[in-house]
Write a structure and sequence with these properties.
The protein is built from three helices and eight strands, in the order βαβαβββββαβ. By secondary structure, the chain is of the alpha/beta class. It comes from Hibiscus sabdariffa (roselle).
Length: 139
């Protein structure tokens, strides 16, 4: 299984889209998480289809800041459990294997928001003793 997490800092640049396409085709990613897309889902859907990713979940940017995109192949069974502007929390199994949790993060950069974010993240699994992968950008 191949996972990609990338703070793309905007997908409006053709060179960034080309680099993303090259990475996805070279590594045959099963799951792609993009943070700071700065784009609405309509534009991101066009790119996703070019990347030949089967499924998607988006958190739209606020104005021209932020934005999250989570793409995955049909080999992945993925359910979104919770989300906000800084994370997408999921339950995942691949090719019928054991279920695990994946939380894809784009942590806030402002100190005033950081503590609340990390506290919320810490409560996602509660007392559940399960496999959990957290990936993304921590500031």
């Amino acid at each position: 299984m191949a996972l990609l997490a990338w703070n793309v800092r905007g997908l409006g640049n053709k060179d960034t889209v080309r680099a993303l396409k090259n990475i996805c085709f070279k590594h045959k990613n099963d799951i792609v998480f993009l943070s700071e897309t700065k784009q609405k889902r309509r534009y991101l859907e066009k790119i996703r289809m070019r990347m030949k990713m089967d499924n998607a979940f988006y958190v739209d940017p606020v104005g021209i800041a932020g934005g999250l995109a989570l793409w995955w192949s049909n080999d992945v069974k993925l359910s979104v459990l919770a989300h906000d502007k800084n994370f997408v929390d999921t339950a995942i199994s691949i090719n019928g294997g054991d279920e695990w949790f994946g939380t894809f993060i784009y942590a806030p950069s402002y100190d005033v928001e950081k503590q609340d974010f990390w506290e919320r993240l810490g409560t996602l699994r509660g007392d559940v003793n399960a496999k959990w992968c957290i990936m993304g950008i921590r500031t």
